[in-house]
Specification:
By secondary structure, this protein is mostly beta strands. It has 1 helix and 7 strands, in the order αβββββββ. It has one helix at about 10-20; strands at about 25-30, 35-40, 45, 50-55, 60-65, 70-75, 80-85. The strands form 2 sheets. It has a 4-stranded antiparallel sheet with strand order 3-4-5-6, with no helix packed on it. Strands 2-1-7 form a 3-stranded antiparallel sheet, with no helix packed on it.
Length: about 90
């Protein structure tokens, strides 16, 4: 290796550009059964302190998210891929 690795802060720009408000149309790939569907079509459970999204095909947990006033916890272990379209520069 020619250079030492940088810390994770270098990913801030690209992550900010892809995690935009309309996440419900992002394609999720269930890590358990491989089903591909928009995030908005997953089964949502809000009984817990946060939201749990489960695969509508196999019922596996795909995503867990919890938020308090100044912090968010996001667990994506249940999906193998999250695919999103990036809006054009001039689009809202």
């Amino acid at each position: 290796m020619d250079s030492a690795p940088l810390d994770g802060n270098v990913a801030a720009g690209i992550l900010a550009s892809i995690f935009y408000p309309e996440m419900t149309v992002a394609a999720t790939h269930c890590a358990h059964c491989g089903t591909v569907r928009p995030l908005g079509e997953l089964d949502a459970y809000v009984h817990a302190p946060g939201v749990i999204l489960r695969c509508s095909s196999c019922d596996a947990v795909v995503l867990r998210v919890m938020q308090n006033r100044n912090r968010v916890w996001l667990d994506l272990r249940g999906m193998s891929v999250l695919q999103m379209d990036i809006p054009d520069e001039g689009s809202p």
